[in-house]
Amino acid sequence: MIVLVGFMGAGKTTVGRLLAERLGLPFVDTDLVVEEQERRPVRAVFADLGEPAFRDLEEAAVRETLDGPDAVVSLGGGACGREATRRRLDGHLVVHLRVSLPESLARTSGDSNRPVLQRPDLPDLHTARQHLYEEVATVSVPTDGRTSDEVARDVLQRIELDRAVRDPEDR
Ligand code: S3P
After folding, report:
1. Whole-angstrom Cα distance, residue 20 to residue 79?
2. pLDDT tens column, 87-126
3. Mind listing the pLDDT tens digit for each residue in 53-80?
4. Ligand 1 mean position to 159 CA, how many Å?
5. Which residue of 6, 122, 148, 162 could cross-link 97, Cys pair, CB 3.0 to 4.6 Å?
6. CA dihedral 111, 115, 120, 124 (to 10 degrees)
């Protein structure tokens, strides 16, 4: 299982799909799991049920996905806000795709399916979340100014190195 975390616009879905393809694994995006279960887009879940209800659904979706078959998994940008989720990530290969706030905004501009982008405290949220992502991550990869393909290749290299360090006898 490879789990991708990071702020909105980090490229978790795009890079996740590339990694899944290259590793021959299925790709699971926990936002899509929630959308399929709820039969409506994330923005409608926020609008109809409120953010706390979305976070409950998201936490359950992450739990079910991590308990499921091997996959490349992309978590929504706010999923690591739940302590239970951070604990569940312990022992997993977790990749933090780092993105600065300006680049995140440039990549997501005009996306109406991300209600959190409207928050007035977005810069503080971005800063606070970096600590959470780094706390759970075993590998941290910069994405600013790089294509998804470059990022995916970097992730694969770093995962190899990470594995070699953890299991030197596998080499
Ligand atoms: C959110 C990020 C979104 C989605 C929801 C809330 C957040 O996922 O889960 O809009 O709180 O940062 P992405 O990170 O895939 O955009």
Report:
1. 21
2. 999 999 999 999 999 999 999 987 888 999 999 999 999 9
3. 999 999 999 999 999 999 999 999 999 9
4. 24
5. 6
6. -90
Provide the residue type at 95 as one letter: V
Q: Which residues contact 11 (CB under 8 A, 6 or more apart)?
A: 97, 99, 107, 143, 148, 151
What pLDDT band is residue 48 in, cutting at 50, 70 and 90? Answer: very high
List pocket residues of ligand 1, CB cut-off 6 Å.
8, 12, 31, 42, 76-78, 114-116
What is the DSSP track for 98-167? E--HHHHHHHHTT-TT-GGGG-TTHHHHHHHHHHHHHHH-SEEEE-TT--HHHHHHHHHHHHHHHHHHH-
Structure tokens at 131: 């600590």
The atom of ligand 1 lying closest to the CA of 58 is 9
Contact yes or no for 134/96 (Cβ under 8 A): yes
For 49, the 3-state DSSP assignment is: helix
Distance CA 12, CA 7 (A): 9
Backbone phi, psi, residue 74, to 5°: -105, 125
Q: How many angstroms is it from 114 CA to the middle of ligand 1? A: 6
User: Ligand 1 centroid vs 115 CA: distance in angstroms?
Assistant: 8
